[in-house]
Design brief:
The complex is a heterodimer of chains A (255) and B (80). With 255 residues, chain A is mainly alpha-helical. Helix content of chain A is 77%, strand content 0%. In chain A, helix 1 runs parallel beside helix 6. The radius of gyration of chain A is 20 Å and the shape is flat. The relative contact order of chain A is 0.22. The chains are: A mainly alpha (255), B mainly alpha (80). At the A-B interface, helix 3, helix 5, helix 7 and helix 8 of A face helix 1, helix 2 and helix 4 of B.
Chain lengths: 255, 80
Amino acid sequence: MDLQTALVAATPAFIASAVEFVEATTIVLAVGVTRGWRAPLVGTVFAVITLALLIGTLGVTIVTIVPEHLLKGIVGSLLLLFGLRWLRKAVLRFAGIVALHDEEVIYQRELAELRAQGLKRTEFDRIGAIVAYKAVLLEGTEVAFIVIAFGASGAAALNSAIVGAIAAGIFVVILGAALRQPLTMVPENWMKFGVGAILSSFGVFWFAEGLGAEWPGDALSLVPILGVYLLASWIATRMLAVILPEGAHVEARNV
Amino acid sequence: MSSALRSIWETLWGLLVEDGQLAVGIVVSLAIVWAIGTYGDVTLRDLTGWLLLVLLVALTLANLYRAGLNARRKITAKGA
């Protein structure tokens, strides 16, 4: 596998996984700060083991058994369903129509909930472990999906996607450990917007490949596809600013 | 296990209910492009990707335009 192919598979998986790791790390940090670090770290380790089994069995099985063109069609469809949803919400947030998804608010809410349950440091903190396990498993399942999706074109691509996701995990965990505070410095909406655009671009690319279409320049076609999505998003944000200049800041389900 | 089931349920709910119109539009676009790619000639098949991109961009812009109008209507109704 050449370096270009490896980067194509690893970089999007890195970026997309980083978004999920940021959310999981925020919750683990909240648990650790309020209830001690042992339980959330145990919960995190168990969640990572569960995820490794999931990726190791399901991911490899899918890649080796299902015909490549069919897999690309299915994965392309799924990427479009997820990616365009993220892109839509990110544009609505940029335009002020939907309220921003604030990591600081989530962190403070987690702190308040955990403090309300009290601290018992003398015995193993099962609640802390379960909260961390659920958070890591929940976000990790999405990482597993991202890894399988970006690694769909073969075993080598799957390995690159796994490397990208692991690198993202290490990067975010080191960042979180260094900061020991909510990861509000990461502009989440920008991350989600970028990930939405990337997932949607890969969705179009792979669905067409699944139909047997040949792209000019192969993977290089992803660049103009991404460009079209970015341009359309900018136009949409401007359009919404004209429709509702002062914004609305409502919940996403209300639009 | 319950968290995984809850995650699946929330994802399905978000996809099919919250963003249902967008999801339906995506599925229809994919079906159109699939039909063209399957029954069209090779030249047409190589254009399916660009066609899909155009359809999805138009769909997303229309969906966001409608979302903007909905939000404005709700704000106006609340203020009245």
